[in-house]
């Protein structure tokens, strides 16, 4: 069964009202799914690849058919604008990305673009011209799977990129970002010019699959994102003393791995001390010299620390560093730390939350707040523009996988709440 038939299989067509058309959304999700389709029925559309370009091209055609003014910047970001019917520049923007991880799913990204487009289609079908302008955005290379980066397009329009290191990034085939950019039809100068004055954008709102199980557990089709967590990546180096595993007595060792293990074990209990939404993970580690019969002399490990509030996230960073120091002292070894990344969490305002709550209640959906642990384009745009996010239920919480699934009923509910939310801002 193809994606469209699968989506329509259990669709409640009574959800197609107010100009919103579930069949059209299913057809478009299906058309996009065919670009870069993998053997496992997954999606393979890396940032700035010909597949990502083809997917953007297809959406551009739909945008043009819907009467939008379509532009593309030097970072490959695509914008489709519907002019509002009252004077002034105020614009509401919504969108997401169409790139994927290798063998990813068909909802992460495309859903945010197509729900925004469906809002425009619904207005068109009911002869509504919004009072304020509405702009749909497709951001380039959100996932970053190709160049080990991510948020390339949203970073470019907000000017939050380190351009020189970005241009030097290399993909799996040894090609630099700059080379790939040229092949894509842009260049460094145009890429830098993608930075845009966003002062006219009153609000950015992104619909995205939850990639977690909270909505599924609560049996709700959509949820309100309480805030978008900002990650901090910390590299820690524990320095002990390498020695012979046979000749060094147990009471005369400086084993870096024993200390690191105690650290990893104890990190788990720290997040709940600062906030119920905070998380910390040690997901990567190197042991030196890494020999069967050698006492570990050095351990390098990485801690990923996140929360949706900056103050509690930063307190957690402090707790993690204190813990590392305390454990190193106890084991008579030393530890150093180096912060590799620190992105501000994006709070979502109380006013926007209240508007979203009203929208949910109007659609008979109990408003449930869900934190976004993962980064999204909304996290980058949210540093400059008031931002909101709506999550759509993910089956089994699976994402970045061909099994990624959101029912058409839930996707269409995503369109309804998005549309009503935007309309509430137009008044
Ligand atoms: Zn995404």
Q: How would you concisely characterize the structure shown here?
A:
With 427 residues, the chain is α/β, with parallel strands linked by helices. The chain has helices at residues 3-9, 22-33, 50-65, 110-125, 152-158, 163-168, 177-184, 188-192, 214-218, 256-267, 271-274, 310-330, 350-362, 377-381, 408-426; strands at residues 69-72, 78-82, 91-97, 133-139, 201-209, 222-228, 230-239, 243-244, 279-288, 294-295, 298-307, 334-342, 346-347, 369-372, 387-392.
Describe the structure.
The protein has 427 residues and is α/β, with parallel strands linked by helices. It has helices at 3-9, 22-33, 50-65, 110-125, 152-158, 163-168, 177-184, 188-192, 214-218, 256-267, 271-274, 310-330, 350-362, 377-381, 408-426, and strands spanning 69-72, 78-82, 91-97, 133-139, 201-209, 222-228, 230-239, 243-244, 279-288, 294-295, 298-307, 334-342, 346-347, 369-372, 387-392. Strands 1, 2, 3, 4, 5, 6, 13, 14 and 15 form a nine-stranded mixed β-sheet that branches. The chain has a four-stranded antiparallel β-sheet with strand order 9-11-7-12. Strand 1 and strand 2 (78-82) form a beta hairpin. The longest helix has 21 residues, at 310-330. The model has no long low-confidence stretch (mean pLDDT 96). The structure holds zinc ion (ZN). Zinc ion binds next to loops.
